[in-house]
């Protein structure tokens, strides 16, 4: 499994960010084909470093590369300019699951 962790910094207007992300960005991003998982972790508003952490999963790095290079992936990336005001960081890497017994 391969994942991309996306960390959105604290936006200048958190309520506007949340509305745009849910109402506009998610529908654009849902058009990306090939993802095997997608999680959103909304940070507590008191967190000074991050507002939202998103983890996208795909079966392999090559599949993730194809997703990001697709027309839908490029449209999703281009949309970031429309709502990101607190910065965004992308972290790419292999995913390892730890079993808890």
From TrEMBL:
Gene3D superfamilies according to UniProt: 3.30.70.100
GO molecular function, one term: oxidoreductase activity
PANTHER family the UniProt entry points to: BLR8190 PROTEIN
Name of the protein in its database record: Uncharacterized protein
């Amino acid at each position: 499994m391969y994942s991309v962790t996306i960390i959105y910094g604290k936006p200048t207007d958190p309520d506007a960010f949340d509305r745009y992300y849910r109402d506009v960005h998610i529908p654009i991003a849902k058009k990306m084909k090939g993802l095997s998982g997608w999680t959103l972790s909304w940070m507590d508003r008191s967190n000074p470093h991050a507002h939202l952490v998103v983890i996208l999963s795909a079966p392999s790095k090559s599949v993730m590369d194809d997703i990001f290079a697709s027309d839908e992936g490029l449209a999703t990336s281009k949309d970031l300019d429309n709502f990101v005001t607190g910065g965004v960081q992308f972290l790419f890497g292999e995913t390892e699951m730890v079993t808890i017994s």
